[in-house]
Amino acid sequence: MGLVGRPRRPACRAITADASELLVVFGLVPWAWWGGLAGLLAGLAGLAAIVFTIRARMQERLPIGTLVGFLLTGIAAVGLGSFLLYWDLGPF
């Protein structure tokens, strides 16, 4: 049936239910909403990490490992959030 026949259910639940029917039996599909929300919140936290890292770098010198680590983690989180939004896997 696919996603077209289920317009009232978010895509994350529909994809989870289509992946395996046993997930519906064990009640794991409602948790997909929370996973989508956590991914979007991680994207916002990643954006905050990038901004705070740049601000801290402007105030004082940071070790290169710390600077690169925080920036890459923030970029990865923003990438996850944007991936979820682009493919409509968020909770909305």
Q: What does this protein structure show overall?
A:
This protein is mostly helical and 92 residues long. The chain contains four helices and no strands. The chain has helices at 11-19, 21-25, 31-59, 64-86. The longest helix has 29 residues, at 31-59.
Describe, in short, the structure shown.
The protein is an all-alpha fold. It contains four helices and no strands.
Task: Quickly give the structural class.
Answer: mainly alpha
- Rg over CA atoms, rounded to whole Å, is 18 Å
> What composes the largest sheet?
none
Q: Low-confidence stretches at least 5 residues in length (pLDDT < 50)? A: none
Mean of all residue-level pLDDT scores: 82
By DSSP (H or I, 4+ residues per run), the number of helices equals: 4
Strand content: under 5%
Distance between the termini: 21 Å
Number of separate strands: 0
**Relative helix content:** over 70%
Shape summary = elongated
Order of helices and strands: HHHH
What attributes does this structure have?
92 residues; mainly alpha; 4 helices; elongated
